[in-house]
UniProtKB/TrEMBL annotation:
EC number(s) stated in the UniProt entry for this protein: 3.6.1.29
Catalyzed chemical reaction(s): P(1),P(3)-bis(5'-adenosyl) triphosphate + H2O = AMP + ADP + 2 H(+)
Organism phylogeny: Eukaryota, Metazoa, Chordata, Craniata, Vertebrata
Gene3D superfamilies for the chain: 3.30.1360.180, Alkaline Phosphatase, subunit A
Subcellular localization: Cell membrane
Cofactor: Zn(2+)
Protein name in the entry: bis(5'-adenosyl)-triphosphatase
Family: Belongs to the nucleotide pyrophosphatase/phosphodiesterase family.
Signal peptide bounds: none
Record's bilayer topology term: Single-pass type I membrane protein
Keyword vocabulary terms for this entry: Blood coagulation, Cell membrane, Disulfide bond, Glycoprotein, Hemostasis, Hydrolase, Membrane, Metal-binding, Signal, Transmembrane, Transmembrane helix, Zinc
Role this protein plays: Hydrolyzes extracellular Ap3A into AMP and ADP, and Ap4A into AMP and ATP. Ap3A and Ap4A are diadenosine polyphosphates thought to induce proliferation of vascular smooth muscle cells. Acts as a procoagulant, mediating platelet aggregation at the site of nascent thrombus via release of ADP from Ap3A and activation of ADP receptors.
Length: 462
C-alpha cells in the first residue's frame, strides 16, 4: 500500500515535469490527422449573461466540454479588432485592425464595416485561415470579419460575401456541407450578429428584450449541436463557441458633448464613441488641452501617452489624440444618445468581456476555468489543428489545461493530495494496529478469544 502510494506520488511528479515541457508552443503533437476545428462567434455575448439568463443548450454543450467564464479581450473592445485578435493572437496595435472605423494618414484611405475589403488594412497580420491554406489544407468561413478579404494574397474558396440577411441556418448549413464534402477543410469560422444587435438597440439592462434574444441565441446553439450530430461531425470535430466583447448600458444622462469643449472646425473625428480617434486641425496642444478638461468621465491621451497596458500605441493608424470614455458614458459631437447599449470601453471592465465554451475530442469534459486572454486562443487553435503559429501575443501555457492531452499542475496537485491522504491513512492504520497488538498482550478477559481469531484484522469482540 505504502509502496504503491509512493509510486503514484512519483508518477504525479513526473506528470508535473511533463506539463512544463508541453507548455512549449512549438510542439505540434496533434500532427496531420488532427480533427477539424469549428470556431463560432455570437457577437456581443457578454460573459455574465451566463449567470443572469438561462441557456439549456449552451449548458449541454459545455457540461460535456469546457467553460471559460470570461476572456480578457483586447482594447478597443470593438467587433473588428477583437475578431481579428481571436484569429491572429495579436493585440490591435500589432494586427492593424484598430477599430471598426479607421483612417490611414499616409494613403488617406478610409475603413469602415461597409468598406472593409481592401487587403491593405488586414495584411499587417496573418490570420489562422491563411496559415491553414498555406499548410495545404482548406479553411471555410461564414461572415467572420475579414474572411471575404484577400489577405496575404489568399482568397478562400469556401466563403460568403457579407450579408446580414443570410440566416443562421443557411450559414451553418453551408459550413457543415463544406466540412463534410471536403475532407481537407481543417478550420471553419461561423459568425452571427446577435446578441450584439439587440444589446445596442435595447441596452443590456432591458431584461425583456435580452431574455428574448438570448433564448434565440441558445436556440441556435441547439441547432448547431443538432446539425453537427446529423452530419456526423458532433464529437468528432473540436468546436469553440465564443464572442468578441460584452455590452454595457448607456443613458441620455451620461453624454459627453464635444461641442461644449472645443470649436468644431479645430479637429476631425475618425471614430467617435466610446473611444474617439481625433485628428487636430489646429495647434495640437490647444486641442488636447480643451479635450483633456472636457469631462471628468473622459480621458484624453496624446498618442505617445496611451497606457502600455492597452497595447494601443504602436501603429500608424492610431490618430494623434485618443479619447476614452468611462463605462456607460457616450461621446457625441452634439445631439442625443445614439444607442442604449455599447462596447469599446477599457478591456479590464468585466462588462466588456465575452465567455468561451469548447467541445470535442481534444477538450476535457465538464471542466471549468475562470479566465484567460482572448489572444491565448490563437496558439490553442494552432495546436488543435497542428499548424505552426505565427509570432503572437498569446500563451499556450494559459490555455493548455482545457485539453485532455495535457497533464495539468492542478490535476497533478489533486493526485498528489489524494496520495498524501492515503499515505497518512495507511500510517495511522499501521500505528492503530501496533497499539492494538500491544493492548492484546495485556491481560484482559477476552484476550484469548482474540488470539484464537485466525489473523483477521478486526477483533470479533471489542
Ligand atoms: C521550444 O521552443 C523553442 C523556441 O521557443 C524551440 O527552440 C525549441 O525547439 C522548442 N522545443 C521543443 C521540444 O519543441
Ligand atoms: C476619408 O474620410 C474622411 C473623413 O470622413 C474624408 O474627408 C475623406 O475624403 C475620405 N477619403 C476618401 C479617400 O474617401
Ligand atoms: C498571388 O497568388 C496567385 C495565385 O493565387 C499567384 O499567381 C501570384 O503570383 C501571387 N502573387 C504574389 C505577389 O505572391
Ligand atoms: C448556403 O447559403 C445560401 C445563401 O447564401 C442558401 O441559399 C443555401 O441554402 C445554403 N446552403 C445550405 C446547405 O444550407
Ligand atoms: C425594453 O424594450 C422594450 C421595447 O423597446 C420596451 O417596450 C420596454 O419598455 C423596455 N424595458 C425596459 C425595462 O427598458
Ligand atoms: C445526437 O443524435 C442521437 C441520435 O439521434 C441522440 O441520441 C443524441 O442525443 C444526439 N446528441 C446531441 C448532442 O444532440
Ligand atoms: C478651448 O477652450 C476655451 C475655453 O473654453 C475656448 O475659449 C477656446 O475657443 C477653445 N479652443 C478650441 C481650439 O476649441
Ligand atoms: C505582440 O506580438 C508581436 C509579434 O510577435 C510583437 O511584435 C509585439 O511586440 C508583441 N507585443 C507585446 C506587447 O509583447
Ligand atoms: Zn461585436
Amino acid at each position: 500500500m505504502q509502496v504503491s502510494g509512493y509510486l503514484f506520488a512519483v508518477i504525479a511528479c513526473s506528470g508535473l515535469t511533463l506539463s512544463v515541457q508541453t507548455g512549449n508552443q512549438t510542439r505540434l503533437e496533434s500532427g496531420n490527422d488532427s480533427p477539424p476545428l469549428l470556431l463560432v462567434s455570437f457577437d456581443g455575448f457578454r460573459a455574465d449573461y451566463l449567470n443572469k439568463y438561462s441557456f439549456p443548450n449552451l449548458e449541454k454543450f459545455y457540461s460535456d466540454g469546457v467553460l471559460v467564464h470570461e476572456l480578457t479581450n483586447v482594447f478597443t473592445t470593438k467587433t473588428f479588432p477583437n475578431h481579428y485578435s481571436l484569429v491572429t493572437g495579436l493585440y490591435a496595435e500589432s494586427h492593424g485592425i484598430l477599430a471598426s472605423i479607421m483612417y490611414d494618414p499616409v494613403t488617406k484611405k478610409n475603413f469602415s464595416i461597409q468598406n472593409d475589403r481592401d487587403p491593405f488594412w488586414w495584411n499587417e497580420a496573418t490570420p489562422i485561415w491563411v496559415s491553414v491554406e498555406q499548410s495545404g489544407y482548406r479553411a471555410a468561413a461564414a461572415m467572420w470579419p475579414g474572411t471575404n478579404v484577400n489577405i496575404q494574397n489568399r482568397t478562400l474558396k469556401y466563403t460568403f460575401d457579407y450579408d446580414p440577411k443570410v440566416t443562421f441556418q443557411e450559414r451553418l448549413g453551408n459550413i457543415t456541407q463544406w466540412m463534410t464534402t471536403d475532407k481537407s477543410v481543417k478550420f471553419a469560422a461561423l459568425y452571427w450578429e446577435e446578441p450584439d444587435r439587440s444589446g445596442h438597440i435595447y441596452g443590456p439592462d432591458n431584461s425583456t428584450e435580452m431574455t428574448r434574444v438570448l433564448k434565440e441565441v441558445d436556440g441556435y446553439i441547439g441547432l448547431l449541436m443538432e446539425q453537427l450530430n446529423k452530419t456526423g461531425l458532433w464529437g468528432k470535430i473540436n468546436v469553440i463557441i465564443t464572442s468578441d466583447h460584452g455590452m454595457t448600458q448607456c443613458s441620455p444622462q451620461r453624454l459627453i458633448i464635444l461641442d461644449n469643449c472645443i470649436i468644431p472646425s479645430s479637429y476631425m473625428v475618425v471614430d467617435l464613441t466610446p473611444v474617439a480617434a481625433i485628428i487636430p486641425l489646429e495647434d495640437i496642444s490647444t486641442v488636447y488641452k480643451n479635450l483633456s478638461a472636457c469631462h471628468i468621465h473622459m480621458k484624453a491621451y496624446l498618442k505617445d501617452d496611451v497606457p502600455d497596458r492597452l497595447h494601443y500605441k504602436n501603429n500608424g493608424r492610431i490618430q494623434p489624440i485618443l479619447l476614452v470614455a468611462d463605462e456607460g458614458w457616450t461621446i457625441v459631437k452634439n445631439g442625443g444618445l445614439p444607442r442604449l447599449g455599447d462596447h469599446g470601453y477599457d478591456n479590464t471592465l468585466p462588462s466588456m468581456h465575452p465567455f468561451l465554451a469548447a467541445h470535442g475530442p481534444a477538450f476535457r469534459k465538464g471542466y471549468k476555468m475562470s479566465s484567460f486572454n482572448s489572444v491565448d486562443l490563437y496558439p490553442l487553435m494552432c495546436h488543435l489543428i497542428g499548424i505552426a503559429p505565427m509570432a503572437n501575443n498569446g500563451s499556450f501555457a494559459h490555455v493548455r489545461c482545457a485539453l485532455v492531452s495535457e497533464q495539468c499542475g492542478e490535476l497533478a496537485l489533486a493526485v498528489g493530495l489524494v496520495i498524501g491522504v492515503l499515505i497518512i491513512l495507511t500510517t495511522f492504520t499501521c500505528l492503530f494496529k501496533l497499539m492494538k497488538n500491544r493492548d492484546v498482550s495485556s491481560p484482559r478477559p477476552f484476550a484469548r478469544l482474540e488470539l484464537e481469531d485466525d489473523g483477521d484484522d478486526e477483533p470479533l469482540l471489542e
